[in-house]
Amino acid sequence: MKSIIILSCLVAMILAAPQDVTILRYDNDNNGLDSYNFAYETSDGTSRSEQGQLKNPGTENEALSVTGTFQYLGPDGVLYKVDYIADENGFQPTGDHIPKPL
């Protein structure tokens, strides 16, 4: 019985160990003033890209407007993709798996 428990623990530790993930692509452009963009993709199917732009600079209505997308392979084997906007109206994600407001 003890050997089954030990074997089960070893199998669980192996399955929980981090997988080797390789960065396939990484781009980053930050001009330090009013905009930026970055993107990356990894060997496990994860990717993300984002662009930010300062709107109304120097005014009381100055706000950062960000658009982006990310995707990842879930533990259920499904590829999840989320597109989003983040601005003065908050974070607004959309995706097939995200419930739509009524």
Describe the structure.
By secondary structure, this protein is mostly beta strands. It is 15% helix and 49% strand. The chain is built from one helix and six strands, in the order αββββββ. It has a six-stranded antiparallel β-sheet with strand order 1-2-3-4-5-6, with no helix packed on it. The longest helix is centred in the first third of the chain and has 15 residues. It is extended.
Summarize the structure in short.
This protein has 102 residues and is mostly beta strands. 15% of the residues lie in helices and 49% in strands.
Write the layout of secondary structure elements.
Elements: H1 2-16, E1 23-30, E2 35-42, E3 47-55, E4 63-73, E5 79-87, E6 90-94
Antiparallel strand pairs: 1-2, 2-3, 3-4, 4-5, 5-6
- Can you give the helix content as a percent range? 10-25%
Q: Give the beta-strand count.
A: 6
Strand content: over 45%
Name the average pLDDT: 85
The residue ranges in which pLDDT falls below 50 over 5 or more consecutive positions are none
Number of helices: 1
User: What about the largest sheet?
Assistant: 6 strands, antiparallel
